[in-house]
Write a structure and sequence with these properties.
The protein has 237 residues and is of the alpha+beta class. Helices cover 34% and strands 20% of the residues. It has 7 helices and 9 strands, in the order E-E-H-H-H-H-H-E-H-E-E-E-H-E-E-E.
């Protein structure tokens, strides 16, 4: 399941986002994208107003190239060459620079035109997992938060507090089999690793708005919950 933009087919969109309007869909992508890249490559959610992934990122580049944004403290030959190639639409040259540029705008341009054409495409499961991890890590800055075998583990002073299993799918109670593997993993986390609570986290949608507790005969007093997660304050109704 891919999310982004490919030069040969245009935007690739997971089914869960298919009914969203263009601005909301673009904002969801930007939110997930920002969780996957370094600070200097992130773009503000306000660029979603352009209504498409490509237009949003190109608008960000154009803004960075404006004099008031372009405040380079040191000269970088590679950065200037990349910017010149972009401005003259010699996109195929951009990906041929082996050295990394120093300017923020040049780094963004190189990332987006690495193959000579505008492309930005991610695995949606990976994006969602990184987004959930960022949210949890920020809220639990005083605890140990780590990613282990596709699970987000929270512990403190050696005590295992919570295991979170991100799952990017369009979940509804009418099709619980979609998360069978995740529930099995939750049971394993409880039995083999001693977690008292395990959350299977999925994007919120019209049929999945509240926490759901899963009762399993092998879990004793430990809890498994299915948890809806909002992306960019977007409700997928």
């Amino acid at each position: 399941m891919r999310f982004g933009y490919l030069s040969d087919i245009g935007e690739t969109t997971p089914s869960i986002f298919s009914k969203l309007n263009k601005v909301v869909k673009t904002k969801a992508f930007i939110t997930l994208y920002n969780a996957c890249v370094s600070q200097e490559l992130k773009i503000e959610p306000r660029y979603a107003k352009y209504g498409s992934i490509k237009r949003a990122f190109l608008a960000k580049i154009d803004d960075l190239l404006k004099p008031k944004f372009c405040k380079a403290t040191s000269f970088c030959l590679v950065s200037n060459a990349i910017i010149y190639a972009y401005k003259t639409k010699n996109y195929e040259l951009i990906g041929k620079f082996s050295k990394n540029p120093k300017y923020k705008v040049a780094k963004l341009i190189k990332t987006l035109f690495i193959n000579g054409k505008f492309e930005i495409n991610f695995d949606a499961n990976f994006m969602f997992s990184q987004f959930v991890y960022d949210k949890i890590a920020n809220k639990n800055f005083d605890k140990d938060v780590s990613f282990q075998n596709n699970a987000i583990c929270i512990s403190q002073n050696g005590e295992k507090l919570l295991c979170v299993l991100p799952c990017f799918c369009d979940f509804s109670l009418s099709d619980v089999n979609k998360v069978k593997d995740e529930i099995d993993s939750a049971v394993f986390a409880i039995k083999e690793h001693g977690f008292k609570q395990v959350y299977v986290v999925m994007p919120r949608n019209s049929e999945f708005r509240k926490h759901i507790e899963v009762r399993h005969c092998e879990c004793g007093h430990s809890q498994i919950k299915l948890v809806p997660y909002t992306i960019s304050n977007t409700k997928f109704y």
